[in-house]
Design brief:
With 384 residues, this protein is α/β, with parallel strands linked by helices. Helix content is 42%, strand content 14%. The mean pLDDT is 96.
Length: 384
Amino acid sequence: MELTRDEELSLKGEHGEILQMAYRILVATGEATDAEKLVPVEWSHLSGVNYNTIGDAGEEFLSQISREAKVKIRTTVNPMGFDFDNVQNYDLDDNFISKQLSIKNSYEKMGVIPSFSCIPYEIFDIPKSGTQVSFAESNAAIHANSYDGLKTNKESAFSALASALTGKSPFSSLRKNDEPNVTIKMKIENPNELSYGMLGFFAGKVGNTSVNISGLGTLDKRQSKAMCGGMGTSGTCAKIIFGDGSSECEEIDFDKKEMQTIFDELNTSEKGDLITLGSPQLGLDEISDLTAKLKGRSFKKRCMIFTPRTVKEQARKIGYLNELERAGCEILSDCCTCLSPLINKESVDSVTTNSIKGAFYLKNSNGVGVNLKSLLDIIEDETN
């Protein structure tokens, strides 16, 4: 890799141990991905926030480097393990609470914006088209590349943090013009967000770093996010190009048979003990739509809704929160369905959700059963 003089000095430790560590991560990543150089990035979005994910080693590492480290660019972070406003309402281990608080404090000491959201593209202004960013959250990376006109690879927790500390990232893969190897033809009639989530899951399995998808109509925000979330769980693919692509691409149909295969893989229960909505977290448009759909109706069982804190406050001012709470919803911010200790096999046998991303992590990480339904079916079946 070609490095500038300043980058070389940082790699040698001339600018301190923190920057030396960060540049070592970037150079190792760049060499592994055939990058020719490092390029400036304007925004980094970090994973590695939930204590369930990074454990004691991650918490200790962040605590140590936060004494000196400061981010150089706008840096936002993924959800934590729980909502600090409601921690007293849940039976959580004191050690988990204290370690999660330590992680939160470490990031804030470094100058990270405490967004605790997996949908930064909905709660922050999007830079101009073509801007290089560094996103570790998989659905956010896919959304940035596919819908927002930004450029990012599907970063790791370490590489995104290194980018935040240096303002640089390796110039490789999707930061260049990476060509898809596959064109997927959507063959499902009248698809809903669950269908698009399964399409994304399928695309993540068959695509390399990007994929063409044809046969799509106009997707709303729920459907777009569902597709990005599904794709982010199943492979390395991090960009959707809408259309047929070149004639050299392999063509694969996504039809009822493929969709049923994915449904059978992730749907393991006929019903759920509780309902979760918000994986990826719900934005204000989805909160507004859900409020309208629930008018005059109430959930018959516990329903947990996950949304960013900024969206929660907007929804409160508009009056949506009162209506959702009247309908029996618990509104949680700063956390997400995935990897949360709030949902575990000791207290829950199965969960009803409309999220493919949520289903994947609930089944494989939380160890609970999954009952997959579209939002309309959830409202029809689970409310009165």
